[in-house]
Amino acid sequence: MQAEETPSRFRELTFIVIASIIAIQIHWSVLGIVVWYILLKRLEAQGILDKWDATRVLGVILMVRTNRGQKALDFISKPRKAWRVFGEIGLWTCRFISAFVLIFFVLAFIGTIMNPTEIEPASPSEIVLIPGVSPTIPLVWGLVGLIVALVIHEYGHGILTRAHGMRVRSFGLLILGLIPIGAFAEPEGREIMRAPRRERQRVFAAGPAINIYGAFIFFIAMALVANTLTPAINGVHAEGIIDEQPASEAGLQPWEVITHANGTIMDDRNDFTSFLDSHQAGDNITLTVLTIADSEGERQQRDINLTLADQYQYQLDLGTDPQIIAAYGIEEGDAFLGVMGLSSNDAGANELAGPLSSSASKDPIPLAVGLAIQPLKLIFNPIDNKGEIMHEQELQLLDSETFLGLEGTMILLHLLFWITWMNVLLGFANLIPILPFDGGHLLRDRLHDYFAFFAKFFPNSHPINVQNTAHKISSMSSLILMGMMILIVALPMLI
Predict the structure, then answer these.
(1) pLDDT tens sequence across 244-258
(2) Strand, helix or coil for residue 232
(3) Which of 6, 149, 400, 469 has a 20 to 30 Å separation from 289 between CA atoms?
């Protein structure tokens, strides 16, 4: 027994040393994964995982099963006809999105191959989308959003499984280092494989479909909360200041709040835009501004004097075609302050609410398009703002007069945002047409449908050959797409 344990301990010690070196160079989580692997090995050897009805898969992932939730699942799935209709709608939704995801990956791959040096390489921690590890995803909010999205996803699979008369053996979580990274509804294997392909496709599509629909519902709730936020200070601010232009030369800083112009109160962006429209290039103006809040939240007031520049001349100096300048309605002598991203102080909340914000257009077409794309646009908020739902300065410019107060409103806003964010991410990621994702299963069964249709015109074609061909092509396409994903991530790092 001692002789068998010695090589095992040596291998584990070697893993720790190698992981420590990698962790120093890349990220501490690498060492944590190896420690987690050793812990799972010990629990497995002592029979503890069996007692927990858990299994170690892919070396470092713990699959924990439970039978809880079965009664609730049976109750929810009782209106079977209604759920089958939902499954059909969800199937077509997922087919459309899966095709969109495939086109996106192909275009991203082509762009990476053609211009690898123009793409900023992602750091290892940014690639691993794990709450608390990735700088994009905060630990607490990320975990809450992920757990909600996982439960919704797997219950979607489970409901459609029961709606089609198949049994669900168990539910469970996939855990890596005490962090849930996935969930599952485990159907009876024989029943799901023997089910008609159309029903099986509905089951596979149900998880990502309910994530996407859920994201839309949570987004609407988040937008309603965002609309309750008001500016803590009336005025406008600029996200950026253009060098060698009036604002820069006068000393205006990004995110400073302009409260008055020539002594007139500026409540919002419309007021300030109207003020600039009433002036010409060469006019001298005085702006009253509040500085960025210090560590105690205090702002200092000061006046700055400047002479407005010519917006038409500025565009010409940039090399903009005069016809394009005219198309934007810019004429010679139009006043130019020299700022970028001029916004009202509630812009952060309005950007979250998107087409449902109080200032957005209510025309049917822009509203419909905005509702379709806004949840997707939210994906970039924490990427652009280092894990925050909006810029840090935008958060400081907001207030709330609801019964929850500012702190309670912000907690609710963050909760709804991260649930929306995780549902969008999980829904779209699962529709990547790569096995074992749901999108891969959908592609395989869809290929089987196509090949079975064409096989009717070939009398000697055998159903087994059709099935094997569909499996081979789907497996090959999965390998190709996986290779493309690796190159998209790795190529900018190598060049």
Answers:
(1) 999 999 999 999 999
(2) coil
(3) 400
